[in-house]
Specification:
By secondary structure, the chain is an alpha/beta fold. 49% of the residues lie in helices and 9% in strands. The longest helix has 23 residues, at 350-372.
Length: 677
């Protein structure tokens, strides 16, 4: 086998193109992901963007109960130093720019990365890359938080201080507005919430005293951003310009940074994955290209790194060929078009300038509101930011349902020819072999049995001791890495000191009833009449089993269910099947709805169905929503699930109506329930 160091590597001119070309990748195992990275680099990719699986992101080992069904699903499992060695085998880290999408456990993954680089003989001071490390947006949208907000901000602060002094080329945090847009943020909210998070981080680092005042400009200069690019091209272009204007203001006026290079708004982009559709998925190609143009056409606001999703991500895990297609889109734009040969072609446009000013002014007002509350962390703890996003997304969903917002192939132009892309002999997506999880469990148990247990125990004791002080935790974390501690053990040790946290759901104060009109009224009528026949208000339990923290769908179902007249029980994310069953029994619910987008549905859903049966609730129907292939849906229904909804079922009132029918069927009173108007 050829070593990576012997393979062609992009020359300096290519590496200095205006943006770094990446595909977000990682799956199954460190071995499989390493092979994928080396293939992508050989095809001309100029940086790595590592996707970690949910147990790694939330601090659990593969043999933990909560990790069941999640190992290797949405990224690569990295449980200890051995996994990280394998992940980057034959990839020279000193020459690489590596982006790691990791937040709550970012310190742990950075420490693993540093130790592997040291083992390769790399100069740690030359390591380049980024850890996302934005915990605030995890409480608002993506849900992979581990610790409460204050200790989480302490971990970020320690990482920023450490990298600025020890890894000056590494970006210790990537303030991430990407998931805010997916959770419903308007351009104004996306800009305001992200910049408010950045202010909170910079204030925390400054106030910690870990970085000398005369070097604080370097802290500002190492802050980068990770932004969503939607399909509304002009709006997205203006949003990026507004980001730059406001960041320059903040860093100069609030922090006194005089060097314009340190004040530069440095951002990378992932274009909008959740905007991709399961219906007519070939339309996603032009969506991706338009979204890429929105962050590359304007030279003065051009992204420094772009990673594109594959056309079929709404269907499941993309294949290597699909990822290659996404990479080639960037290469055609960069090398075949003349896009990069001119100064900013939008400069001086009165339309662009007016829209930029409008977004910037709205964001200033929103940031002032957040500052009055005590900053981003306080606004998270109060539930203000989460409620705003849930409300904004409910309004957007309402516009789609009424047709005010057109989604081609979904709510308009729905007739289609059979697609050769999805009608191939081979599946249109990759699947993760269930044996991957079993192998990971065996591997981590073997790792623990072969390490120096006394060294691991002492390293963990040192970590817990340091966590109770104000000491920077990077050195204690590095000691854990070298002693063979696992991801779950590191996180568990800090959980003992910091505690855990359940973020506000943002659902209680939101209503979309005004958007739905006659259709919602018809569903509400059915709910009321069935409730009367069954002798009590219909109860809907909305559950998020496993580690999947993408709660947007569950929250919208909860909001619409309440508007439709159900009594809704929604306890938030990251619940075991046992906890969901216990809540169903305690609340004596009429129907259980499970939301799963991580691909773990074949593990967690049957566990809930079996748990209900074991508790004498076999007559309580279970419905499931998520990214679920047709064959899996058939298997789930054969196993006792009443209905399966996927992203093509975008009309929430129709989903609510379907739930009413399921409950009526389960109680044998369907004939007595009027059909909706």
């Amino acid at each position: 086998m050829r070593r990576f160091s012997d393979m062609p590597y992009p020359s300096s001119p290519e590496r200095d193109r205006p943006w770094m070309m990446r595909t977000y990748a990682g799956h199954s195992s460190a071995t499989e992901s390493n092979a994928l990275y080396r293939r992508n680099l050989a095809k001309g990719q100029t940086g790595l963007s590592v996707a970690f699986d949910l147990p790694t992101q939330t601090g659990y080992d593969p043999d933990d109960q909560l990790a069941k069904g999640e190992v290797g699903r949405v990224g690569v499992p990295v449980t200890h130093l051995g996994d990280m060695r394998m992940l980057f085998e034959d990839i020279p880290l000193e020459q690489m720019n590596t982006s790691m999408t990791i937040n709550a456990t970012a310190m742990w993954l950075l420490a693993l990365y540093q130790v592997v680089a040291e083992e390769q003989g790399a100069d740690v001071g030359k390591l380049a890359g980024t850890t996302q490390n934005d915990i605030v947006k995890e409480y608002l949208s993506r849900g992979t938080y581990v610790f409460p907000p204050a200790p989480s901000m302490r971990l970020i602060t320690d990482m920023v201080a450490y990298t600025v002094l020890q890894m000056p080329k590494f970006n210790p945090i990537n303030i991430c507005s990407y998931h805010l847009q997916e959770a419903g943020a308007t351009p104004v909210q996306e800009v305001a919430f992200a910049l408010s998070t950045a202010v909170s981080v910079l204030d925390a680092v400054r106030d910690s005293g870990q970085v000398p005042a005369d070097q604080f400009g370097k802290v500002v200069g190492r802050i980068s951003f990770f932004v969503n690019a939607g399909v509304r091209f002009i709006e997205e272009t203006c949003k990026m310009r507004a980001f730059g204007v406001l960041w320059d203001e903040i860093t100069k006026e609030r922090y006194g940074v005089e060097d314009p290079k340190m004040r530069r708004f440095r951002y990378g982009v992932q274009v909008n994955s959740l905007g991709l559709t399961e219906a007519q998925p070939e339309n996603n190609v032009q969506r991706i290209v338009l979204e890429m143009l929105g962050v590359s056409l304007s030279r003065d606001a051009r992204a420094r790194a772009i990673q594109l999703p594959a056309w079929n991500e709404a269907l499941g895990l993309p294949r290597p060929w699909d990822q290659q297609w996404a990479l080639r889109m960037q290469q055609v734009l960069a090398f075949e078009s003349d896009l990069l040969e001119y100064d900013d072609i939008l400069a001086g446009s009165h339309v662009i300038e007016a829209k930029v000013a409008d977004i910037a002014e709205g964001a200033r007002k929103e940031m002032q509101q957040i500052q009055k509350m005590g900053g981003a962390v306080a606004a998270v703890e109060a539930g203000y930011m989460k409620s705003a996003l849930v409300d904004s997304l409910a309004q957007r969903r309402g516009r789609i349902e009424t047709g005010a917002d057109v989604i081609v192939g979904v709510n308009k132009f729905q007739t289609t020819e059979p697609s050769p892309l999805t009608g191939e002999a081979e599946p249109a997506i990759m699947t993760v072999d269930p044996a991957v999880e079993a192998a990971a469990i065996v591997a981590v148990q073997k790792w623990r049995s072969e390490r120096d247990e006394d060294a691991a125990r002492k390293a963990l004791a040192r970590l817990k001791s340091a966590a109770g002080t104000t000491d920077n935790l990077m050195e204690a974390t590095l000691a854990c890495v070298r002693a063979g501690v696992t991801t779950g053990e590191w996180s568990s040790a800090l959980r003992e000191v910091f505690g855990e946290f359940r973020a506000p759901t943002g659902v209680s104060s939101v209503s979309a009833a005004s958007e739905a009109g006659e259709a919602l009224g018809a569903v509400r009528k059915r709910v009321n009449e069935l409730s009367e026949k069954l002798g009590g208000r219909l109860k809907l339990l909305v559950g998020k089993p496993g580690l999947d923290g993408h709660s947007n769908g569950a929250e919208q179902i909860a909001v619409r269910g309440r508007d439709a007249g159900f009594e809704v029980i929604y306890q938030g994310i990251r619940l075991t099947p046992e906890q969901i069953v216990a809540a169903a029994v305690e609340e004596d619910v009429d129907v259980v709805g499970l939301s799963v987008l991580s691909g773990s549905h074949m593990g967690v859903v049957p566990a809930v169905v079996a748990g209900l049966r074991a508790n004498g609730m076999e007559d309580v129907p279970v419905i499931v929503g998520g990214i679920i292939p047709d064959e899996d849906a058939k298997t789930l229904i054969a196993g006792g699930v009443a209905r399966v909804f996927t992203p093509k079922d975008y009309e929430l009132n129709e989903i609510m109506d379907g739930i009413v029918t399921v409950v009526a069927e389960a109680n044998g009173v369907l004939a007595d329930v009027p059909e909706p108007v």
